[in-house]
Specification:
Blueprint: E1 4-9, E2 30-31, E3 35-36, H1 39-47, E4 52-57, H2 62-71, E5 81-86, H3 100-105, H4 108-111, E6 118-123, E7 126-128, H5 132-142, E8 146-153, H6 155-158, E9 162-166, E10 172-177, E11 205-215, H7 216-222, H8 230-241, E12 244-248, E13 253-255, H9 259-268, E14 296-298, E15 301-307, E16 312-314, E17 317-323, E18 328-329, E19 334-340, H10 349-357, E20 364-365, E21 370-376, E22 381-382, E23 387-388, E24 397-398, E25 402-405, E26 408-411, E27 416-417, E28 422-423
Length: 424
């Protein structure tokens, strides 16, 4: 039987997701009300019965460590684990991870002791549900040494991805990194014999998803050099040297590595028919159990919303929003298109009184506050009679309490927005 190690790439500083990554690593960013981004690739691996999982990261990893430790505990008979490998100094190397390939290379000392037959490389900032077991079966049956998961895209989207050229058997013959919008790539169109049944009309090009399967000896050989990045260096050279095939994935897949893509994907979860399905009993998305009470709504009106555990929502009107754990939303407030990440703890009545005496709002959203098209990070304190995103669009900018990115207002973690504040 194949022995597979799953390697999840935690990414670098996560600057495109700033300020959500100001105090936490990208995989640790809260997602969908109660989960974190890292739960997606970890759950895909577990659901595919690949239970030996390494997560490579180096920036702001404390909260990620706490989440992984409390969320993923396997019994001793399963031989499963989820282990974080942060950048470390050894006698062989003393620097940070210099890129995705470099991160994997520097951890072979840990991987090889498991004696894997295959490595599966997963990204830590993508939203999808994939049968990785089927991916592996395809890799083995095709006789590939490397298999790259790809998704079909149209011409305009192709400029944002690494594009694969395949033959009739889906063997990859060439790679192009982000072709210019005016470049002629008509000879890179997917051959009819390689298209999946029910392929969408107009999606004629194969984009790399940044998900790979390597035969174990091939990965070790492909990284026996100084190259630091899979997508830009290792994969293009591997295509010339090894037998590399494309596994075409036709399900929902979204890169949530920017504020806009993260916001859009999160808000979509609250739609009537979301593109990503959290409600699949056979493919659950696992996370940390918190033992919180059910959410309580006191005469609140909620339309197309998700409310996580432990919330208290009183006489508020909420539409097209995702409400995170322990969120407190007070009377006469309205939220439209809001991602509220909630809180890490409840305040006591004594703490509330002490803070209000200093003019500091309670954690949560106060009375008669109106918010549109915003992300509210954890433990934010938003006072009474505030307007956020309700008046004039703001250019991209940053202040001590918030950031505006692509027109989306992001209230920072632990921010204090005092009564009567107007933002946009």
């Amino acid at each position: 039987m194949p022995k597979v190690l799953s390697i999840i790439l935690g990414g670098g500083k996560g600057t495109r997701l700033y300020p959500l990554t100001k105090e936490r690593s990208k995989p640790a960013v809260p997602f969908g009300g109660k989960h974190r981004i890292v739960d997606i690739p970890v759950s895909n691996s577990i659901n595919s019965d690949f239970k030996q999982i390494y997560l490579l990261t180096q920036f702001n990893s404390a909260s990620l460590h706490m989440h992984i430790t409390s969320a993923y505990n396997f019994d001793r008979f399963s031989q499963g684990f989820v282990e974080i490998l942060a950048a470390e100094q050894t006698l062989e190397h003393s620097g940070w991870y210099e890129g995705t390939a470099d991160a994997v290379r520097k951890n072979f000392i840990h991987f090889k002791t498991r004696k894997p037959t295959h490595y599966i490389i997963l990204s830590g900032d993508q939203l999808y549900q994939m049968d990785l077991r089927g991916f592996l079966d395809y890799h083995i049956q095709s006789g590939a040494q490397i298999t790259i998961a790809t998704t079909a895209v149209n011409r305009s989207d192709a400029s944002g991805f690494g594009i694969m050229k395949v033959d009739k058997t889906r063997e990859i013959t060439a790679f192009m990194e982000k072709p210019a919008p005016d470049a002629d790539i008509s000879d890179w169109i997917i051959p009819d014999e390689s298209r999946t049944p029910g392929a969408v009309q107009g999606k004629d090009y194969l984009a790399s998803m940044g998900i790979y399967i390597f035969d174990a000896p091939i990965l070790e050989e492909a990284l026996d050099n100084e190259y630091t990045d899979f997508g830009k260096e290792v994969i293009p050279l591997a295509i010339k040297k090894y037998k590399v095939f494309s596994y075409i994935f036709d399900g929902y897949w979204e890169d949530i590595g920017t504020i806009k893509s993260f916001y859009d994907a999160t808000i979509d979860l609250a739609s009537v028919t979301p593109k990503f399905n959290f409600y699949d009993e056979e493919k659950p998305i696992f996370t940390k159990p918190r033992n919180l009470p059910p959410s309580k709504t006191n005469n609140a009106q909620m339309t197309r919303c998700i409310a996580s555990e432990g919330c208290v929502i009183t006489e508020a009107s909420i539409t097209d929003s995702v409400i995170g754990i322990r969120s407190v939303i007070e009377r006469q407030s309205t939220l439209h298109g809001v991602v509220c990440m909630g809180a890490d703890f409840y305040e006591t009545e004594e703490e509330k009184a002490e803070n209000r005496a200093k003019g500091i709002p309670n954690i949560g959203i106060g009375c008669n506050t109106h918010i549109k098209r915003a992300i509210i990070d954890k433990n934010a304190r938003i006072g009474n009679n505030c307007l956020i995103g309700c008046c004039n669009p703001l250019p991209d900018c940053e202040t001590a309490e918030y950031v505006v990115s692509d027109g989306i207002i992001v209230i920072k973690k632990n921010a204090v927005i005092r009564d009567h504040t107007v933002i946009g």
